[in-house]
Design brief:
alpha+beta, four-stranded antiparallel sheet, about 20% helix, DUF3305 domain-containing protein, DUF3305, about 170 residues
Length: about 170
């Protein structure tokens, strides 16, 4: 058993739908995860149909770390494991860039604090789910729940005390 992280590339497809809104011109959604497609450039148009345009957003790397298996177990536990795709607004056409892909719900929480990232959960493809299950089987160890004991408050430390005069300092104000 090694303590090495494992990596897998995954191709992401997205769709841009034009909408009639004075503040936003389009709605984006992640449409799928594919085996990496090295023969396609990021943001290649895959399909166009009226108001909708499908893109191959590019390849992102999923990294599994041995120390994060509790988060992977949490993702697998519900029976419908998810792949989280994080897209970031960009000044370059078409207006987004593929930032990251993860299976770690904890990592998603960190990105959601950024504010302007588009984060979508899609079903994890079966081959990636199997890879994740295998990784968890090799690296996960249950950690017993440990409830931290709080220190008892010291009532004397919380009591009000008279101000302390400092020797050698003039206590007058003028």
């Amino acid at each position: 058993m090694t303590g090495q992280a494992e990596r897998r590339g995954v191709g992401i497809t997205v769709e841009r739908q034009r909408i009639d809104n004075p503040w936003v011109d389009a709605r984006w959604r992640v449409t799928g995860a594919l085996p990496a497609l090295p023969d396609r450039a990021p943001w290649t148009v895959l399909a166009q149909d009226g108001e909708r345009t499908g893109y191959y957003a590019g390849v992102a790397e999923i990294v599994l770390h041995p120390g994060e298996t509790e988060n992977y177990v949490e993702n697998l536990k519900g029976g419908h494991p998810m792949l989280y795709v994080i897209l970031r607004r960009s000044a370059e056409d078409p207006g987004l860039r593929l930032l990251a892909v993860t299976v770690d719900p904890g990592e998603v929480d960190a990105h959601s604090d950024a504010g302007d990232d588009l984060i979508e959960a899609i079903p994890l493809p079966p081959d990636l789910a199997e890879w994740m299950r295998d990784f968890v089987a090799r690296h996960h160890t249950e950690r017993p729940f440990y409830k931290r004991q709080r220190d008892r408050a010291d009532p004397e430390a919380l009591a009000r005390r008279a101000p302390v005069a400092h020797p050698g300092k003039d206590q007058r104000h003028g």
